[in-house]
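Input structure tokens:
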């Protein structure tokens, strides 16, 4: 059974604000209360924890889109303040609490359990080969509480898609910071003005942009060329294709039910999360 890629793209849009409550102020505050110095300490501790005590080089490789040295500013230091096991527990607890607060009455709706169950069935069904972050999360116990279970399922689906997106970038010869450059250009921004990269050294950003210009993907003003737009679209299309596997566990009616049920959750959870350092 196959599902239209449009539905896979729509599911990505719907699950993103649910999973990314992990990057909200509430979760950041919880990590700071146990000794994290800043947002990024908590980010790396929480997201990398399923990999165990992996060195910075491994986390850098798995996350893919951070500049050299960024991960090493946090890993392994964070493990002197919290263990991976404790970080996993804290992240789940704080993320579920943050999502519950956003959802309000929706959190107590009987239909939420059904949506959490459908999302979980999809989230735990895909092969793990070649997907390090997804595999790490799959090794964790599924929460019993419906709100926590929905957060866990969407986080699994997000990391599954993310692992596939990295594969798509690699297949097209696009590095992590280069991927940011293409995304920034699609918004009419440059690496110097894009939230995820504006803090990096200007010389480093100039080198990335120059490399993309030499390949004909950016023009002299930093905008996408026709080749750049085509390459970016091919990456997005391949990412959607590679993100399909979990949803094959659901039939067409269940998939539509999941999309419809996630709508109100999305509306309640949506919040722009600035990932500035």
């Amino acid at each position: 059974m196959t599902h239209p890629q449009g539905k896979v793209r729509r599911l990505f849009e719907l699950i993103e604000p649910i999973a990314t409550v992990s990057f909200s102020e509430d979760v950041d505050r919880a990590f700071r209360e146990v000794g994290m110095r800043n947002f990024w300490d908590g980010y790396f501790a929480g997201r990398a924890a399923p990999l165990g005590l992996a060195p910075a080089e491994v986390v850098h490789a798995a996350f893919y889109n951070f500049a050299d040295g960024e991960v090493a500013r946090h890993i392994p230091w964070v493990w002197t303040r919290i263990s991976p096991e404790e970080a996993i527990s804290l992240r789940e607890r704080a993320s579920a609490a943050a999502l519950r607060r956003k959802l309000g009455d929706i959190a107590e709706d009987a239909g939420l359990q059904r949506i959490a169950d459908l999302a979980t069935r999809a989230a735990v069904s895909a092969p793990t080969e070649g997907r390090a972050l997804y595999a790490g999360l799959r090794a964790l116990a599924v929460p019993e509480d419906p709100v926590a279970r929905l957060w866990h399922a969407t986080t699994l689906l997000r990391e599954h898609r993310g692992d596939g997106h990295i594969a798509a970038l690699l297949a097209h010869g696009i590095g992590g910071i280069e991927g940011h450059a293409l995304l920034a250009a699609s918004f009419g921004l440059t690496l110097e003005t894009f939230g995820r990269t504006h803090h990096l050294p200007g010389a480093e950003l100039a080198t990335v942009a120059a490399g993309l210009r030499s390949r004909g993907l950016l023009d002299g003003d930093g905008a996408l060329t026709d080749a750049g737009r085509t390459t970016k679209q091919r990456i997005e299309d391949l990412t959607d294709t590679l993100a399909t596997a979990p949803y094959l566990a659901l039939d067409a009616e269940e998939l539509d039910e999941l999309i419809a049920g996630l709508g109100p959750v999305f509306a309640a959870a949506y919040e722009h999360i600035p990932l500035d350092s």
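The chain is about 60% helix and 0% strand. The first helix runs from residue 5 to 19.
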